[in-house]
Design goal:
Strand order of the largest sheet: 6-5-7
Largest sheet: 3 strands, antiparallel
Structural class: alpha+beta
Shape: flat
Strand content: 5-15%
Number of helices: 12
Oligomer: single chain
Radius of gyration: 24 Å
Number of strands: 7
Order of helices and strands: HHHHEHEHHHEEHHEHHEE
Length: 251
């Protein structure tokens, strides 16, 4: 009791997730088996994957590590806990922040996460984070600089979470408001327009696009147009993280 053992703690949590998934899978196999017997090819494929999962999870493996992307998509409706992407966020002593290789427990955890679980590790210091939230923004930045950090742990967690879930952000601007929209990486301009409003996707004509970094340098949409920096993109344009987009559409 009280012993610091992050690997043990992770194994306990993963075991609980596996048991929960196994209970659900066993029930699902019974239902899908009946449908598969009617000759349904979809049910047969689903049953094959569920049976595979039942065997692998029974051996202590996680669904995300034994299924292909296609197989995960087929059984996505089951919302399996062990099929979810994982990010390990250990709370480390603030004296080791930025020098994690000097922390014996972190080194063991990192090796286990990388080689056994095949997942990323994002160390943060809860003590430092609690101090940052109490500071005004300017002082918080100065505090982070003193620690040799560009971003707080919560900011880095948000970024890593986006990467893990394959998400990006694009922006829309107007006289009254500027908004950020979250979409999957690889989304087309037309599909992204549907995120704003379904009419925009249906009546999509084109998108006027500039990246946020360039927009900030120029200072305004008007200036960007004068400089010829606004691009016209069609429905198949793949939206990039940080794009600012004005959608032209007709309904």
């Amino acid at each position: 009791i009280g012993e610091i053992n992050p690997i043990r703690d992770i194994e306990i949590i993963n075991t609980e997730l596996i048991i929960k998934d196994l209970e659900f899978i066993e029930k699902s196999i019974e239902k899908v088996s009946k449908i598969a017997k009617t000759g349904s090819k979809e049910a047969e494929k689903e049953l094959e994957i569920l049976t595979k999962l039942n065997n692998e999870l029974s051996q202590g493996k996680m669904a995300i590590n034994v299924l292909s992307d296609e197989e995960i998509e087929i059984v996505s409706k089951y919302q399996l806990l062990t099929a979810k992407p994982m990010l390990i966020v250990p709370n480390i002593d603030d004296k080791f922040l930025g020098k994690e290789h000097q922390d014996e427990n972190f080194v063991k955890l990192y090796d286990y996460a990388l080689n056994v679980l095949k997942v990323r590790v994002l160390p943060i210091s809860a003590k430092i984070e609690s101090e940052i939230v109490e500071l005004p923004e300017s002082e918080a930045k100065a505090f982070l600089n003193e620690l040799g950090l560009k971003l707080s742990g919560l900011q880095r967690l948000a970024i890593e979470g986006y990467k893990l879930l394959n998400l990006i952000t694009f922006f829309t601007i107007g006289e009254k408001e500027t908004r950020a929209w979250t979409i999957k990486k690889g989304t087309t301009a037309q599909k992204a327009a549907g995120k704003i409003h379904s009419d925009m996707e249906k009546g999509f004509i084109r998108a006027e696009v500039i990246h946020y970094d360039e927009f900030v340098k120029l200072g305004s949409w008007t200036k960007a147009k004068e400089e010829g920096k606004i691009r016209l993109e069609g429905k198949d344009y793949i939206v990039q993280d940080g794009d600012i987009i004005i959608v032209r559409f007709n309904v």
